[in-house]
Amino acid sequence: MTEKTSTTESLGRLRSRIRDAWDLDPVFIDPIIAPGLTKNQKLSVKRASENTAESGIPHFIAIVPEIALAVGDDWDRFTADLAYVVHADGDAEQSLVLFSEGASAAAARAYLVDDNGPVVPPDAANLTRSATDDFLPVELSVPYLLGVLVAAAKGTQPPDPPDFDTRDPGDRSEDYIEATGLGNGNPDVTVFGAAAVAALGLSVWLMRRREKYSWKTSLTTAPELVRSARLRSRADQVLEPLPEPHEPSEETWQLYDRGRRIQDALRALVESHPDWADNPDFAHRCGVFVLVSTDKWVRKRLRGSSSADEEAPRFCFLFPHHRGGIERFALEQNRTMLRVDLCEHCRAEINAGHEPERLMVPKRPGSKRAVPYFRRSDAYAASGFGSFQPLEDALVEAQSVRAGQERSR
Ligand SMILES: [Zn+2]
């Protein structure tokens, strides 16, 4: 086994230990180092967590062995990714996530996470080392960094750095610089240099990540589809009478029924959202796009056209206008596996560890908060644009539910 593989594997194991523990308790102390912490250190971490809970913002703390220097850049990615995952699994607007080594705060990583990804608040980045010589011990760094995170989340003044006399670092048996092999030459310059490079690398990486994922906090505005896919005129064509099957059979009459349901669904959509083409909620125009595309296929099949595909058109679950190379795919969403249709591009992105862009819509009508369409509970979410059930069925069902509610009023 190469060194790289073993690092990747041990980080993978640590990751699932932390993630599972956080489901039960916001404080994870790695059992490997727990016996080495004093009572006071554990108490201080626990109190800091209780104080943070009063802010009402979800927080997660992991106290881990000294691993950051051993894994280098991977530690930044590991912590930032895990911070994002635990935030995304919840439904809060912000989460606070802190990783700290058990002995010192040398490798503390403090993240304020929103839907765009994690950021390191400036005051948290400063605290890797005290002015004189030593790194802050865990019992001081954890309360301080959590205070910084709460202040950054609420936009208030950060707390003063802890009062720590580094000329008297207590009974720590080993010198940090010696222990990490950075003892040659001028230790301060070496360590500060290494810390600064690490911090710079991290912030560049986080910024790229935030840029790449900026779609997560904005409503989808492209592609506009109404003009580019001629949705208005094609919607009118859908409502024209269907041709009777060229070759009458059970199968073609079923297709004919499907064509009728598509017409009903389109009428229901337009009736409930007459502004579908201008609505800031792009799910409506995607819905029309899916209906007109399916109608086109139905009509071709009814006419017996030789250019009609055997199979009905399929649409990418994440963004229904993606059409290329659609296949069934097990997609992890909020720790559950969904079997959905995904296009080639989205599958490649996910397999490379990225998150492909998805159709982002207002959480509620008129709301500015953008959520993936499948996080709502409307007909689009229920159908997944065909991944779970045909869109026309979901739209027709939703309309009959609405009609039922109106009758009972
Ligand atoms: Zn796609």
Low-confidence runs: 128-134, 165-199
Task: Give the overall form.
Answer: elongated
What topology, given as strand order, has the largest sheet?
1-2-3-4-5
Reported for the largest beta sheet, the result is:
5 strands, mixed
Order of SSEs, N→C? HEHEHHEEEHHHHHHHEEHEEHH
| Structural class based on helices, strands and sheet pairing | alpha/beta
- What value does the Rg take, in angstroms? 28 Å
Tell me the span between the first and last alpha carbons. 69 Å
Count up the helices.
Answer: 14
Total number of beta strands:
9
**Distinct small-molecule ligands in the complex:** zinc ion
- Percentage of residues assigned to helices: 40-55%
Total tally of structural domains: 2
**What percentage of amino acids are in beta strands?**
5-15%
Output mean pLDDT: 82
Description:
The protein has 2 domains: 3-166 and 174-217; 231-408, no CATH class. Helix 9 (231-238) packs across helix 11 (283-303) and helix 10 crosses helix 14 (391-408). It is 47% helix and 11% strand. It contains 14 helices and 9 strands. The radius of gyration is 28 Å and the shape is elongated. Strand 3 (95-101) and strand 4 (109-114) form a beta hairpin. It is of the alpha/beta class. The strands form 3 sheets. A 5-stranded mixed sheet has the order 1-2-3-4-5, sandwiched between helices. Bound molecules: zinc ion. Residues 316, 318-319, 322, 342-343, 345-346 line the site of zinc ion (ZN).
